[in-house]
Amino acid sequence: MAVQKLFHISIFLLVCTAKAINPEAEALLRWKSTLIGANPLPSWSIANSTCSWSGVTCDAAGHVTKLHLSGFGLHGTLHAFYSAAFQNLTVLSLNNSNLVGVVPANISLFLSLTVLDLSYNNLVGAIPYELSHLPMIVKLKLGNNHLTNPEYASFSPMSSLKLLSLANNNLSGAFPQFITNCTGMIGLDLSANAFSGPLPDSLPQMVPRLGYLNLSFNGFSGSIPRPFSRFQKLEALDLGNNNLTGGIPEELGMMSALILLCLYSNPLGGSIPASLGQLHSLEDLAISDADLVSTLPPELGNLTSLTGMFLEGIIYLEACHHLLPGCKQ
Ligand SMILES: *[C@@H]1O[C@H](CO)[C@@H](O)[C@H](O)[C@H]1NC(C)=O
Ligand SMILES: *[C@@H]1O[C@H](CO)[C@@H](O)[C@H](O)[C@H]1NC(C)=O
Ligand SMILES: *[C@@H]1O[C@H](CO)[C@@H](O)[C@H](O)[C@H]1NC(C)=O
Ligand SMILES: *[C@@H]1O[C@H](CO)[C@@H](O)[C@H](O)[C@H]1NC(C)=O
Ligand SMILES: *[C@@H]1O[C@H](CO)[C@@H](O)[C@H](O)[C@H]1NC(C)=O
Ligand SMILES: *[C@@H]1O[C@H](CO)[C@@H](O)[C@H](O)[C@H]1NC(C)=O
Ligand SMILES: *[C@@H]1O[C@H](CO)[C@@H](O)[C@H](O)[C@H]1NC(C)=O
Ligand SMILES: *[C@@H]1O[C@H](CO)[C@@H](O)[C@H](O)[C@H]1NC(C)=O
Ligand SMILES: *[C@@H]1O[C@H](CO)[C@@H](O)[C@H](O)[C@H]1NC(C)=O
């Protein structure tokens, strides 16, 4: 009799515990069980309430809204990550982990996602174009992986996107045209890939709010588009280490918000236009190894914010320190 009672109690407890595991916790534990290594994420246990697990943030209703799992050294894949149980997930950050395998297309079914950061992993395969269907995505960071070209033609315009980093991957071909459809973008980093061909003239018109543009360490060729002068909010322009020719356009002096201008390591040729002296916010100017033949225009003496200037390789460099109080020569 006592034994039977105990049995009933155990059943009752079992059912209770089972009920206490919400589907989100179950989904997270299922994914955790696919990770490699000795007990990653020890706090992720049914003994603790899901909302207290490391890296997990919940809303008032107890639904998981944010997963900040960067830097836990998690080793495994994302194959088992997707679950329909996450209805209110807004942030998924797994940067700086040890993830391998592909980016599953079903990550794009997290419809409330605003931040997806998978940078600094070892992910391979094509970037799923389905990620462009995320209706609320604001930050998409896939840099520093081994990702290859997506099916660009299937991209949707990402009107909510503000920041895109695809840096340091294995992407190639022409400047991705879908970017001209991301009209609200503020930061774009395509550096350290194998993109080639011309820079799009239409970029400032299509993506006028860009504040950060890094296209360095690619194989872009042709000249720096003169319409780039219409970037009125651009603070950092890094075009270093490409195959750009045709000189430094005088019009770049009209990019009045510019704080950093890197044009180093390009076969640009020509001289330093005096118009650069109008860039009153400029702090860093890197134009070394750009086949420039020039005296330093006296107008650059107006660049009172300048703290760093990298001019090595310019022929006929003169009296730099007289003109530029901040010049480190
Ligand atoms: C709950 O998580 C903490 C770590 O955050 C851990 O120290 C503790 O042992 C966990 N409790 C249980 C019952 O697993
Ligand atoms: C990646 O995560 C680390 C924490 O581990 C953070 O400090 C860093 O800023 C993140 N880097 C990027 C590129 O988001
Ligand atoms: C999500 O995609 C991965 C990789 O394609 C797949 O292995 C997994 O079964 C998918 N998950 C669901 C729930 O469909
Ligand atoms: C998601 O959150 C919103 C409010 O933030 C709430 O109205 C909605 O019911 C939640 N959805 C689910 C499936 O929990
Ligand atoms: C990167 O791309 C090149 C050629 O496009 C290919 O040969 C190489 O295997 C790729 N590497 C990875 C890690 O995908
Ligand atoms: C931009 O979006 C429009 C509307 O969806 C589409 O017709 C066009 O093909 C897109 N352009 C590019 C380059 O993706
Ligand atoms: C641009 O990207 C390169 C390579 O990824 C990086 O080394 C450089 O610091 C970046 N430039 C700026 C201005 O952030
Ligand atoms: C740079 O462009 C020239 C043609 O303009 C081409 O011959 C050369 O191969 C390119 N170099 C690189 C490194 O892409
Ligand atoms: C810039 O410098 C030049 C030559 O040093 C000077 O004549 C000119 O007035 C300055 N312009 C401005 C806007 O400060």
TrEMBL record:
Keywords annotated in UniProt: Leucine-rich repeat, Membrane, Repeat, Signal
Q: Does the keyword Hydrolase apply?
A: no
Any single Pfam family the record assigns to this protein: LRR_8
Q: Which InterPro entries does the record cross-reference, listed alphabetically?
A: Leu-rich_rpt (IPR001611), LRR_dom_sf (IPR032675), LRR_N_plant-typ (IPR013210), PGIP (IPR051848)
Cellular component terms per the entry's GO annotation: membrane
Instruction: Pinpoint the Leucine-rich repeat-containing N-terminal plant-type domain residues.
Output: 22-59
Report what the protein is called. Answer: Leucine-rich repeat-containing N-terminal plant-type domain-containing protein
Organism of origin is Aegilops tauschii subsp. strangulata (Goatgrass)
